[in-house]
Structure formats: structure tokens, C-alpha cells
Amino acid sequence: MLNYLFAFLTSAAIAVSFRGRMRAVPASGLAGLLGWAGYDITLRLGLPAPLGAFLGALVVGVTGEVLARRLREPTLMFVVPGLFPLVPGIIAYRGMLNLAQGDYIAAAQELTNTLFYAGALAAGLSLPPAFLRRKR
To answer: Do residues 3 and 40 touch, judged by C-beta distance below 8 A?
Structure first.
């Protein structure tokens, strides 16, 4: 439960650092919380973590599109802060640490895993605008 609180606070803090309007800050936190929930539920079901990252990013993308329309703010105001809890920073750090220590096999594994996460985040985030934005 504490992870959900931190996902909300992280996303809200990033929204504040982007100098978003105060009415958009809690909504940005909500996007991060819902994205983390999608990721967490996927892991609890025993599915692979990159799939969880994909579903979390998909949830963030859909939430960002909906909130942008309701609050008349740019979608990026919700999507970028909402993605922060899902970014695989510790995996990338361990990969670079292994690389610096000369453990090239472990480094390759960690950095490849980081690339899978990054690809999953990008794929999950790219689908909602394609389906939810109206053609003009």
C-alpha cells in the first residue's frame, strides 16, 4: 500500500517541478498511482515484469488522455509525471555498476532487461493516443 502512496507523491512532485497548474497536480499523481497499480497487479498475477511495465504505461496513457480532455491541459502534463514510478532506474543502475566492475555478463543481462522495460513503456504509451484522439 505504501508503494501506491509513493507512486502518487512521486508523480505529483514531478508535476509540481514541471510548474503545472495546481489543479493538474493531483490528477498527475492519480495517473502515476493508476499506472503503478496496473504494473503491480500484473506482477501479483505472476506475469513478466516487462508486460507489467507495458500495461502500466498503457494505463498512464489512457488516464493522461482522459484527464487532458477533462481538465483542458496538455496530455504530457499527466503522462510524463505518471511514467516516473515505472521507469526502471535501479535495473539500469545495476547494469552500469556491473559494467564498471567488469562483470560484463551480468551487465549485459541487466542492460538488456532495461531495454525491454523501455520498449514496453514506449509501446504502452504510444497506443492510447492512436486510439483515443479524434481525427480532425
So the answer is: yes
- Looking at residue 134, its pLDDT comes to 65
All structural domains of the chain with their residue ranges: 2-129
Q: Is 111 exposed, middle or buried (0-12, 13-18, 19+ CB in 10 A)?
A: middle
Q: Are the beta carbons of 78 and 27 closer than 8 angstroms?
A: yes
CA dist 90 and 79 (Å) reads 21
The model's pLDDT over 55-68, given as tens digits with 9 standing for 90+, comes to: 999 999 999 999 99
Q: Write out the DSSP string of 78-136.
A: HHHHHHGGG--HHHHHHHHHHHHTT-HHHHHHHHHHHHHHHHHHHHHHHHHHHHHSPP-
pTM as predicted? 0.88
Distance CA 4, CA 75 (A): 22
